Amino acid sequence: MRHKRLTALLLLAAQSRILVGGQAVIEGVMMRVPGAWAVAVRDPQGKVQTKREPFTSRVENSRLLRLPLLRGVVHLFESMKIGLATLNWSADIAFPEDASKASGSGAGAWLSNMVALALAVGLFFVAPLWLTTRLLSIEQQALGFNLVSGGLRIAFFLIYLGLISLIKDVRRLFEYHGAEHKAVYTFEAGQPLTVEMAQKFPTQHPRCGTSFLFIVLIAAILTFALIDTLVIAFIGPMSLGLRLLVHLPLIPLVAGVGYEALKLTARLQHVTLFRWLAQPGLWLQNITTRQPDDDQMSVALESLSHAFGDKLPEYQGQTFIADAIA
Asked: What is the pTM of this model?
Protein backbone atom coordinates (compact mmCIF):
# COMPACT_ATOMS: atom_id res chain seq x y z
CA MET A 1 0.00 0.00 0.00
CA ARG A 2 2.80 2.41 0.91
CA HIS A 3 4.61 1.56 -2.35
CA LYS A 4 1.47 2.26 -4.39
CA ARG A 5 0.93 5.59 -2.65
CA LEU A 6 4.54 6.63 -3.29
CA THR A 7 4.22 5.64 -6.95
CA ALA A 8 1.04 7.71 -7.28
CA LEU A 9 2.74 10.74 -5.73
CA LEU A 10 5.73 10.42 -8.08
CA LEU A 11 3.45 10.16 -11.11
CA LEU A 12 1.51 13.18 -9.91
CA ALA A 13 4.69 15.22 -9.48
CA ALA A 14 5.81 14.25 -13.00
CA GLN A 15 2.67 15.66 -14.61
CA SER A 16 2.89 19.07 -16.22
CA ARG A 17 0.72 21.91 -15.05
CA ILE A 18 -1.26 23.98 -17.50
CA LEU A 19 -3.97 26.63 -17.31
CA VAL A 20 -6.97 25.19 -19.15
CA GLY A 21 -10.57 25.83 -18.21
CA GLY A 22 -13.76 27.34 -19.49
CA GLN A 23 -17.44 27.94 -19.03
CA ALA A 24 -20.72 27.23 -20.74
CA VAL A 25 -22.28 30.04 -22.74
CA ILE A 26 -25.55 30.24 -24.66
CA GLU A 27 -25.55 27.33 -27.14
CA GLY A 28 -21.82 26.95 -26.76
CA VAL A 29 -18.65 26.79 -24.70
CA MET A 30 -15.77 29.14 -23.96
CA MET A 31 -12.32 27.67 -23.40
CA ARG A 32 -9.24 29.38 -22.00
CA VAL A 33 -5.75 28.00 -22.70
CA PRO A 34 -2.19 29.37 -22.38
CA GLY A 35 -2.01 32.54 -24.47
CA ALA A 36 -5.59 32.68 -25.71
CA TRP A 37 -9.28 32.03 -25.21
CA ALA A 38 -11.87 30.90 -27.70
CA VAL A 39 -15.62 30.44 -27.84
CA ALA A 40 -17.67 28.17 -30.09
CA VAL A 41 -21.43 28.65 -30.49
CA ARG A 42 -23.97 26.80 -32.65
CA ASP A 43 -26.16 29.29 -34.53
CA PRO A 44 -29.85 28.74 -35.44
CA GLN A 45 -28.83 27.25 -38.80
CA GLY A 46 -26.78 24.56 -37.02
CA LYS A 47 -23.38 25.97 -38.00
CA VAL A 48 -20.71 26.31 -35.31
CA GLN A 49 -19.27 29.81 -35.20
CA THR A 50 -16.00 30.48 -33.39
CA LYS A 51 -14.08 33.42 -32.05
CA ARG A 52 -10.54 33.47 -30.67
CA GLU A 53 -8.62 36.19 -28.85
CA PRO A 54 -5.01 36.19 -27.61
CA PHE A 55 -4.82 36.64 -23.87
CA THR A 56 -2.07 36.62 -21.25
CA SER A 57 -2.96 36.92 -17.59
CA ARG A 58 -1.44 39.75 -15.61
CA VAL A 59 -0.40 37.13 -13.09
CA GLU A 60 2.14 35.72 -15.54
CA ASN A 61 4.00 39.03 -15.85
CA SER A 62 4.07 40.12 -12.21
CA ARG A 63 5.79 38.58 -9.21
CA LEU A 64 3.50 40.50 -6.90
CA LEU A 65 0.29 39.25 -8.54
CA ARG A 66 1.58 35.66 -8.43
CA LEU A 67 1.44 35.71 -4.64
CA PRO A 68 -1.22 33.48 -3.04
CA LEU A 69 -4.59 35.20 -2.54
CA LEU A 70 -3.67 38.02 -4.95
CA ARG A 71 -3.46 35.64 -7.90
CA GLY A 72 -6.89 34.30 -7.06
CA VAL A 73 -8.44 37.77 -7.05
CA VAL A 74 -6.80 38.63 -10.41
CA HIS A 75 -7.85 35.33 -11.99
CA LEU A 76 -11.40 35.87 -10.73
CA PHE A 77 -11.74 39.31 -12.29
CA GLU A 78 -10.12 38.19 -15.54
CA SER A 79 -12.42 35.18 -15.74
CA MET A 80 -15.47 37.36 -15.09
CA LYS A 81 -14.43 39.82 -17.80
CA ILE A 82 -13.85 37.09 -20.39
CA GLY A 83 -16.95 35.19 -19.29
CA LEU A 84 -19.28 38.17 -19.63
CA ALA A 85 -17.82 39.13 -23.02
CA THR A 86 -18.22 35.62 -24.43
CA LEU A 87 -21.67 35.23 -22.90
CA ASN A 88 -22.86 38.40 -24.63
CA TRP A 89 -21.26 37.30 -27.92
CA SER A 90 -22.92 33.90 -27.71
CA ALA A 91 -26.31 35.55 -27.16
CA ASP A 92 -25.83 37.59 -30.33
CA ILE A 93 -25.01 34.42 -32.31
CA ALA A 94 -27.71 32.21 -30.81
CA PHE A 95 -30.42 34.90 -31.05
CA PRO A 96 -29.50 37.11 -34.03
CA GLU A 97 -33.01 38.52 -34.33
CA ASP A 98 -32.80 39.94 -30.80
CA ALA A 99 -29.31 41.33 -31.43
CA SER A 100 -30.44 43.12 -34.62
CA LYS A 101 -33.36 44.76 -32.82
CA ALA A 102 -31.33 45.90 -29.83
CA SER A 103 -30.12 49.48 -29.70
CA GLY A 104 -27.26 50.58 -27.49
CA SER A 105 -26.52 46.92 -26.82
CA GLY A 106 -23.12 47.61 -25.25
CA ALA A 107 -24.56 49.91 -22.60
CA GLY A 108 -27.56 47.62 -22.13
CA ALA A 109 -25.37 44.57 -21.59
CA TRP A 110 -23.19 46.47 -19.12
CA LEU A 111 -26.25 47.64 -17.19
CA SER A 112 -27.72 44.13 -17.12
CA ASN A 113 -24.45 42.72 -15.79
CA MET A 114 -24.26 45.37 -13.07
CA VAL A 115 -27.85 44.71 -12.01
CA ALA A 116 -27.16 40.95 -11.88
CA LEU A 117 -24.04 41.55 -9.78
CA ALA A 118 -25.93 43.82 -7.39
CA LEU A 119 -28.71 41.24 -6.98
CA ALA A 120 -26.15 38.51 -6.29
CA VAL A 121 -24.41 40.59 -3.63
CA GLY A 122 -27.77 41.51 -2.10
CA LEU A 123 -29.06 37.95 -1.99
CA PHE A 124 -25.92 36.08 -0.95
CA PHE A 125 -24.18 38.63 1.29
CA VAL A 126 -26.48 41.43 2.47
CA ALA A 127 -29.65 39.39 3.08
CA PRO A 128 -28.01 36.72 5.31
CA LEU A 129 -26.40 39.42 7.48
CA TRP A 130 -29.67 41.34 7.76
CA LEU A 131 -31.72 38.24 8.64
CA THR A 132 -29.24 37.05 11.25
CA THR A 133 -29.17 40.49 12.84
CA ARG A 134 -32.97 40.76 12.92
CA LEU A 135 -33.78 37.23 14.05
CA LEU A 136 -31.06 36.57 16.63
CA SER A 137 -29.19 38.56 19.25
CA ILE A 138 -25.72 37.24 18.52
CA GLU A 139 -24.17 40.24 16.74
CA GLN A 140 -21.18 40.28 19.09
CA GLN A 141 -20.49 36.53 18.81
CA ALA A 142 -18.16 36.51 15.82
CA LEU A 143 -18.14 32.77 15.16
CA GLY A 144 -21.78 32.13 16.02
CA PHE A 145 -23.02 35.06 13.93
CA ASN A 146 -21.03 33.98 10.88
CA LEU A 147 -22.03 30.34 11.25
CA VAL A 148 -25.70 31.34 11.13
CA SER A 149 -25.35 33.93 8.36
CA GLY A 150 -23.09 31.57 6.43
CA GLY A 151 -25.62 28.77 6.81
CA LEU A 152 -28.33 31.07 5.43
CA ARG A 153 -26.03 32.02 2.56
CA ILE A 154 -25.49 28.37 1.66
CA ALA A 155 -29.23 27.68 1.93
CA PHE A 156 -30.00 30.59 -0.42
CA PHE A 157 -27.39 29.28 -2.84
CA LEU A 158 -28.86 25.77 -2.88
CA ILE A 159 -32.41 27.07 -3.30
CA TYR A 160 -31.24 29.36 -6.12
CA LEU A 161 -29.54 26.50 -7.97
CA GLY A 162 -32.57 24.27 -7.53
CA LEU A 163 -34.97 26.91 -8.86
CA ILE A 164 -32.97 27.92 -11.93
CA SER A 165 -32.38 24.25 -12.80
CA LEU A 166 -36.13 24.04 -13.48
CA ILE A 167 -35.83 26.55 -16.35
CA LYS A 168 -35.54 24.85 -19.74
CA ASP A 169 -32.90 27.23 -21.16
CA VAL A 170 -30.81 26.90 -17.99
CA ARG A 171 -30.95 23.10 -18.19
CA ARG A 172 -29.58 23.36 -21.71
CA LEU A 173 -26.81 25.64 -20.45
CA PHE A 174 -26.01 23.00 -17.82
CA GLU A 175 -25.68 20.42 -20.62
CA TYR A 176 -23.03 22.58 -22.28
CA HIS A 177 -21.43 22.90 -18.84
CA GLY A 178 -21.16 19.11 -18.71
CA ALA A 179 -19.69 19.09 -22.24
CA GLU A 180 -17.08 21.65 -21.18
CA HIS A 181 -16.00 19.45 -18.26
CA LYS A 182 -15.78 16.36 -20.44
CA ALA A 183 -13.63 18.20 -22.97
CA VAL A 184 -11.24 19.40 -20.25
CA TYR A 185 -11.05 15.90 -18.77
CA THR A 186 -10.24 14.43 -22.20
CA PHE A 187 -7.45 16.94 -22.77
CA GLU A 188 -5.97 16.47 -19.28
CA ALA A 189 -5.93 12.69 -19.78
CA GLY A 190 -3.97 13.04 -23.02
CA GLN A 191 -6.74 11.35 -25.03
CA PRO A 192 -7.84 12.20 -28.59
CA LEU A 193 -10.29 15.10 -28.68
CA THR A 194 -13.14 13.14 -30.20
CA VAL A 195 -16.79 13.06 -29.24
CA GLU A 196 -16.68 9.31 -28.65
CA MET A 197 -13.72 9.59 -26.26
CA ALA A 198 -15.00 12.70 -24.44
CA GLN A 199 -18.40 11.14 -23.72
CA LYS A 200 -16.66 8.48 -21.61
CA PHE A 201 -15.65 11.05 -18.99
CA PRO A 202 -17.88 12.34 -16.15
CA THR A 203 -19.61 15.71 -16.14
CA GLN A 204 -18.40 16.52 -12.60
CA HIS A 205 -14.95 18.12 -12.33
CA PRO A 206 -13.11 19.01 -9.09
CA ARG A 207 -12.10 22.45 -10.42
CA CYS A 208 -15.60 23.49 -11.45
CA GLY A 209 -16.87 27.00 -10.83
CA THR A 210 -19.72 25.47 -8.83
CA SER A 211 -17.20 23.87 -6.47
CA PHE A 212 -15.35 27.19 -6.33
CA LEU A 213 -18.51 29.05 -5.28
CA PHE A 214 -19.29 26.49 -2.58
CA ILE A 215 -15.73 26.73 -1.23
CA VAL A 216 -16.04 30.54 -1.22
CA LEU A 217 -19.21 30.22 0.88
CA ILE A 218 -17.35 28.08 3.41
CA ALA A 219 -14.28 30.34 3.32
CA ALA A 220 -16.54 33.34 3.97
CA ILE A 221 -17.71 31.85 7.27
CA LEU A 222 -14.17 31.30 8.56
CA THR A 223 -12.65 34.49 7.14
CA PHE A 224 -15.40 36.81 8.31
CA ALA A 225 -15.48 35.14 11.75
CA LEU A 226 -11.77 35.92 12.16
CA ILE A 227 -12.19 39.47 10.88
CA ASP A 228 -15.20 40.12 13.12
CA THR A 229 -13.24 38.84 16.12
CA LEU A 230 -10.48 41.36 15.41
CA VAL A 231 -12.92 44.22 14.80
CA ILE A 232 -14.81 43.53 18.05
CA ALA A 233 -11.54 43.26 19.99
CA PHE A 234 -9.98 46.49 18.69
CA ILE A 235 -12.95 48.69 17.73
CA GLY A 236 -15.90 47.48 19.75
CA PRO A 237 -19.43 46.13 19.16
CA MET A 238 -20.44 45.48 15.55
CA SER A 239 -23.68 46.72 14.06
CA LEU A 240 -25.22 45.60 10.76
CA GLY A 241 -23.92 48.75 9.08
CA LEU A 242 -20.38 48.18 10.32
CA ARG A 243 -20.48 44.54 9.23
CA LEU A 244 -21.55 45.52 5.72
CA LEU A 245 -18.86 48.20 5.65
CA VAL A 246 -16.22 45.61 6.63
CA HIS A 247 -17.46 42.51 4.80
CA LEU A 248 -18.41 43.81 1.34
CA PRO A 249 -14.98 45.26 0.41
CA LEU A 250 -13.39 41.98 1.54
CA ILE A 251 -15.38 39.75 -0.85
CA PRO A 252 -12.39 39.63 -3.28
CA LEU A 253 -10.18 38.46 -0.39
CA VAL A 254 -12.62 35.65 0.40
CA ALA A 255 -12.66 34.73 -3.30
CA GLY A 256 -8.85 34.58 -3.20
CA VAL A 257 -9.00 32.21 -0.23
CA GLY A 258 -11.53 30.07 -2.11
CA TYR A 259 -9.32 29.99 -5.20
CA GLU A 260 -6.33 28.72 -3.23
CA ALA A 261 -8.48 26.12 -1.46
CA LEU A 262 -9.90 24.90 -4.78
CA LYS A 263 -6.44 24.56 -6.33
CA LEU A 264 -5.23 22.63 -3.30
CA THR A 265 -8.17 20.21 -3.14
CA ALA A 266 -8.08 19.60 -6.90
CA ARG A 267 -4.33 18.98 -6.87
CA LEU A 268 -4.48 16.59 -3.88
CA GLN A 269 -7.44 14.46 -4.95
CA HIS A 270 -5.31 11.38 -4.28
CA VAL A 271 -5.35 12.27 -0.54
CA THR A 272 -8.46 11.02 1.21
CA LEU A 273 -9.00 14.19 3.28
CA PHE A 274 -8.93 16.48 0.25
CA ARG A 275 -11.11 14.10 -1.74
CA TRP A 276 -13.71 14.36 1.05
CA LEU A 277 -13.39 18.17 1.10
CA ALA A 278 -14.05 18.31 -2.65
CA GLN A 279 -17.08 16.02 -2.46
CA PRO A 280 -19.77 18.64 -1.63
CA GLY A 281 -18.80 20.64 -4.70
CA LEU A 282 -19.01 17.51 -6.84
CA TRP A 283 -22.45 16.73 -5.41
CA LEU A 284 -23.64 20.22 -6.34
CA GLN A 285 -22.54 19.60 -9.90
CA ASN A 286 -25.32 17.03 -10.14
CA ILE A 287 -27.46 20.18 -10.41
CA THR A 288 -25.24 22.45 -12.51
CA THR A 289 -24.04 19.89 -15.06
CA ARG A 290 -26.09 17.59 -17.27
CA GLN A 291 -25.20 14.89 -19.77
CA PRO A 292 -24.60 16.61 -23.16
CA ASP A 293 -25.61 15.15 -26.51
CA ASP A 294 -23.01 14.55 -29.22
CA ASP A 295 -23.70 17.87 -30.96
CA GLN A 296 -23.08 19.79 -27.75
CA MET A 297 -19.96 17.74 -27.09
CA SER A 298 -18.60 18.56 -30.54
CA VAL A 299 -19.06 22.29 -29.85
CA ALA A 300 -17.03 22.05 -26.63
CA LEU A 301 -14.23 20.16 -28.40
CA GLU A 302 -14.25 22.68 -31.25
CA SER A 303 -13.86 25.49 -28.72
CA LEU A 304 -10.91 23.78 -27.04
CA SER A 305 -9.20 22.95 -30.35
CA HIS A 306 -9.77 26.47 -31.70
CA ALA A 307 -8.34 27.99 -28.51
CA PHE A 308 -5.06 26.08 -28.94
CA GLY A 309 -4.97 26.67 -32.69
CA ASP A 310 -1.75 25.55 -34.37
CA LYS A 311 -0.19 24.74 -30.97
CA LEU A 312 -2.60 21.88 -30.21
CA PRO A 313 -0.23 19.11 -31.51
CA GLU A 314 2.39 20.29 -28.97
CA TYR A 315 0.06 19.36 -26.10
CA GLN A 316 -1.87 16.34 -27.33
CA GLY A 317 -0.91 12.96 -25.93
CA GLN A 318 0.39 14.39 -22.64
CA THR A 319 -1.29 14.26 -19.25
CA PHE A 320 -1.73 17.44 -17.25
CA ILE A 321 -2.74 18.86 -13.92
CA ALA A 322 -4.61 21.98 -14.94
CA ASP A 323 -4.63 25.07 -12.73
CA ALA A 324 -7.63 26.98 -14.07
CA ILE A 325 -11.20 26.76 -12.85
CA ALA A 326 -12.87 24.32 -15.23
From this structure: 0.85
